[in-house]
Amino acid sequence: MNTLPVVGITGAGSGIGAAIATELSRRGFHVVVTDVNLDSAERLAASLPSADARALDVTSPEQVEEVVGAIVSHHGRLDAWVSNAGVSKMQRFVDISPADLKWNFEINTFGVFYCGQSAARAMMRLGTGGAIVNTASMAAKQGRAPFLADYVASKFAVLGLTQAMALELAPHKIRVNSVCPGFVATPMMDREQTWEAELRGVTVEDVRQGWVNDTPLGRLETPEDVAKVVAFLLSDDAAFVTGEAISVNGGAFMD
Ligand SMILES: NC(=O)c1ccc[n+]([C@@H]2O[C@H](COP(=O)([O-])OP(=O)(O)OC[C@H]3O[C@@H](n4cnc5c(N)ncnc54)[C@H](O)[C@@H]3O)[C@@H](O)[C@H]2O)c1
């Protein structure tokens, strides 16, 4: 059995997931870096003191169950799970195809559902309790997110799911929370800046400056800003926090 607490993280080869992996590693976790892109997961795992990498496409419940099972048989424990993988594609609401809607929900919502189920089953079998964090979004709390109607709907669903999971898993000493980032500088944001500039007929710099202007703390968010709050939610400092959706957005949306 691994002597360190073990955490599995999805979509951890890039952006926010990679920062979460790095921060949790710094705080003494053995990190299982998972991503649909195995190369990026392997590169990150190789840079951390105690980590391994696994290919995981969160849209496959069979693959999710298999990976969680492999983590438990390899390490003998599963203390925490972060369902972070997510995608976006900016388009006008009237232009979103059924295929794009399905793709978005399969990763952003169903993926969180499948991972939460498998992680919770494993934690219940082990009887050790645990903590789960789902990466939602500022767009999980307000629909004022232009050209992202499918994304908004998929992320609102994550908050409801988080609450339902928190309620049912509490008797098993498993806490479940969401984190709601704002405008975070990652490859996803780079793609969104370009799409929004095209859709609004402005420059990428105009879009970026608009996001900064919308943020009272006056800068774009870093992946590390999010990672530190995820680490708090997984720690004993948050021992009595469950079913919450914590905003980490520099004040860009206050609820
Ligand atoms: N960047 C932002 O401004 C922002 C704001 C709020 C919320 N978020 C959320 O944060 C999370 C991480 O986003 P990011 O900005 O780091 O994006 P990113 O594109 O940099 O990273 C996303 C990662 O998810 C992986 N991924 C994609 N499809 C997958 C699948 N089917 N199975 C497993 N992994 C898959 C990708 O390979 C990539 O490594 C997402 O859930 C996103 O919705 C991002």
Structure description:
- The chain is α/β, with parallel strands linked by helices.
- The protein has one domain: Rossmann fold, CATH 3.40.50.
- The chain contains eight helices and seven strands, in the order E-H-E-H-E-H-E-H-E-H-E-H-H-H-E.
- Strands 3-2-1-4-5-6-7 form a seven-stranded parallel sheet, with helices on both faces.
- Helix 4 links the parallel strand 4 and strand 5.
- The longest helix is centred in the middle third of the chain and has 29 residues.
- The mean pLDDT is 98.
- Nicotinamide-adenine-dinucleotide binds next to helix 1 and helix 6.
In brief, what are we looking at here?
The chain has 255 residues and is of the alpha/beta class. 48% of the residues lie in helices and 15% in strands.
